[in-house]
Design brief:
Structural class: mainly alpha
Oligomer: single chain
């Protein structure tokens, strides 16, 4: 880094497309003022949120995003999501023509085979396990580094049509994981950009089931951010877009995402109907016919979604009942969320002592998690607990919670 700065100072080179913007921000100067006019166009391309018009656009955008992410480009890490981008993506995917087989056999890049695709899949599964156990902030940077350095050259390599479809689908799944991890770290604009590129790759890989799951994930993020009508629309678009190839588990997830959004709007009747449809779909599933990446969505996951819904429509007792059935024992972060919903439901039901006891269980469970979303759940619980006042139960809880890392982070978040 010192050699690079010395090179810039001696006019032997100019700051590159990622360090340049950081210099502008640190010095409080524009690119033009520092003689870095070459940065303007790059900034605009990097920060745009549009559905890629072609697979080549997605490949180019992903390469840029991965590099910028690795270099911790602040405008990207702190970018806000775009609500119109959700609408554009779902519409363009729904009306997209049949994909042409991706095949590039005359390029000068590396030759890609199915063994390379299998390696990406196995590596992504390893990162997914780390994400599930330790949270999105634990190994997110390592995943992006792998995608940027090892996967990006394969996308611009040589491959036959059959390999190209498998490659695009597998990289779409890995990029979806990058989006989830970025979302869990609350880099919401970055996560949305990864979701958009993943959706385009899934389209070109002719993997409509995965594309529907990506829209469902975008619905999840939209609900978290308070865009409830848009979230419901995304869930419905996912269901509509794969109606011919949908599996019961996928349908259950899409209905559950719609229910989560509807609960936030206060439409209890429609929410309950969506949950009923989700339950009916899940009961008819045959695990052998499901994509491997959706098999995690089981009765415990659906119970967790229902618990969120009934909490949000102020049916505290029903939220408690579902949250108690939502502990899988195998998915640490999901169990943390379910436990915090259970604590919140007890609080809303007028039982602060049980709420505090359960919240301490969640803090123990989440001690190894690096997840901004987990911290946000705790911050919301803290706000509701504060309304009770300084009772003996609350004081005792604060004293015990103070020793937990996640609670300290929630304390800082509440203070901002």
């Amino acid at each position: 880094m010192k050699r690079r700065i010395a090179s810039w100072e001696n006019d032997h080179s100019v700051p590159d497309e990622f360090y340049g913007p950081l210099l502008c921000e640190a010095l409080g100067k524009t690119g033009a003022e520092l003689g870095l006019n070459h940065l303007t166009g790059h900034d605009a391309r990097l920060l745009e949120t549009r559905y890629p018009p072609a697979p080549e656009s997605a490949i180019d955008s992903l390469a840029q995003l991965w590099r910028a992410d690795l270099n911790e480009y602040e405008p990207l890490l702190h970018a806000a999501p775009s609500e119109p981008a959700w609408s554009e993506a779902s519409l363009r995917w729904l009306v997209a023509p049949e994909p042409s087989p991706p095949a590039v056999e005359e390029r000068s890049g590396v030759r890609v085979g199915l063994a390379d695709v299998a390696a990406i899949k196995t590596t992504s599964e390893m990162f997914a396990q780390l994400d599930d156990r330790f949270g999105g902030d634990h190994a997110r940077h390592a995943l992006i580094q792998y995608l940027s350095r090892d996967v990006a050259p394969l996308l611009t390599g040589q491959y036959k049509a059959s390999v190209g479809r498998a490659l695009f689908s597998t990289v779409a799944e890995a990029t979806l994981l990058a989006a989830w991890m970025s979302y869990d770290a609350c880099h919401h604009g970055l996560a949305q950009r990864y979701f958009l590129q993943a959706l385009r790759l899934a389209q070109d890989g002719d993997d409509r089931r995965l594309a529907g799951s990506i829209l469902s994930a975008m619905s999840h993020q939209a609900t978290f951010l308070g865009h409830y009508a848009q979230a419901a629309t995304l869930a419905r678009a996912a269901r509509m877009g794969i109606s011919g190839v949908a599996t019961p588990t996928l349908l259950a997830q899409f209905h559950a995402m719609e229910a989560r959004a509807l609960a936030r709007t206060g439409d209890t009747r429609a929410c309950e109907q969506a949950l009923t449809e989700a339950t009916r779909a899940l009961e008819s599933r045959n695990s052998g016919d499901e994509p491997e990446w959706i098999t995690y969505f089981d009765e415990a996951e659906l119970a967790a979604e229902a618990a969120h819904c009934f909490r949000d429509v102020d049916h505290a007792r029903r939220a408690v009942a579902h949250a108690e059935n939502a502990m899988s024992g195998t998915h640490v972060r999901s169990d943390f969320f379910a436990t915090m919903v259970l604590a919140d439901a007890h609080l809303r039901a007028g039982d602060p002592e049980e709420a505090c006891r359960v919240a301490l269980d969640a803090l123990d469970l989440g001690e190894q998690l690096k997840s901004a979303r987990c911290i946000s759940y705790l911050a919301e619980f803290r706000q509701r607990l504060a309304r009770i006042g300084s009772t003996a139960v609350v004081r005792d809880f604060y004293e015990q919670a103070a020793d937990h890392r996640l609670w300290e982070a929630a304390d800082r978040l509440s203070a901002t």
